[in-house]
Amino acid sequence: MKKYDVVAIGELLIDFTENGKSAQGNPVLEANPGGAPCNVLSMLERLGKKTGFIGKIGNDMFGDQLERAVREVGIDTAGLKRDPEVHTTLAFVHTKEDGDREFSFYRNPGADMMLSEEDLDLDLIRNCRIFHYGTLSMTHETCRKATYRAIAEAKEAGAVLSFDPNLREPLWKSLKEAREQILYGMSQCDVLKISDNEIQWLTGQEDFDAGAAWIQKQFPGISLILVSIGKEGSRAYLGNLRVEVPAFVQESTIETTGAGDTFCACILNYVLEHGLQGLAEGQLKEMLTFANAAASIVTTKKGALRVMPERAEVEALAASR
User: Fold this and answer.
1) Which residue, 107, 130, 150, 274, could crosslink 6 as a Cys pair with Cβ 3.0–4.6 Å?
2) How far apart are CA 52 and CA 116, in angstroms?
């Protein structure tokens, strides 16, 4: 028996999100704990799963805030390291009128980039059922080597590998390098969660079905492909099965930060409870419906990591359709 249901590696940072204006008319920014991997783990903890995180933060006030937040939601911090010289990574999130987001990162360098192979808690990696990773821990050589080593250890230990590219163009030297690392991540994973704009950019196919077919042909080792399509919902591709479920559109949506991570967590939760083999069309629909509902709820809240919905709240929304 593995001690952890899911262990994730990657960035843990502060998301500064807009929260109105001051009396002087200046924008007020709220310091929300964030980072895609821990957002995923936070939702899994809400669903009763045991999780652990591997990453690096600065030895500063923001690092203190992040460590408190991660522990508060129940994520094991045995793999969380501190850098005495490099500050915690910061991201400033601007929400546009159409609800989409723009990111400005203060990460040159940032503590998350400094995670090295020597920092890895290998026992944590070897004792998980699912190992989850993205590409922000592949943008620079030091953290890239650590991520590659972690992936290899998880694969050798028999874990299911889950990958979310989570492309953030400003953090890469070039899109060519980003593409290379995304393709590497896909070559290693069993479960792929990819967004609509990412699959179009990566495959050159405007049609999502064509893009998914391209991925299945290039990477036959990927068992399950999930495509998140924003307000249009999501799709799942498993072998010859293709299932689409519409989104739960909320009038009270504030921002979309963390929606994709919440969706991804719910997918991994379903895989933990039902496995990857032999899932039927109805099960894929059930899986996507729950994941879409959870993602929808998160869009009505500021931030993500500390405001994940409870299972009952998600089930109630999912049952309303």
Assistant:
1) 130
2) 17
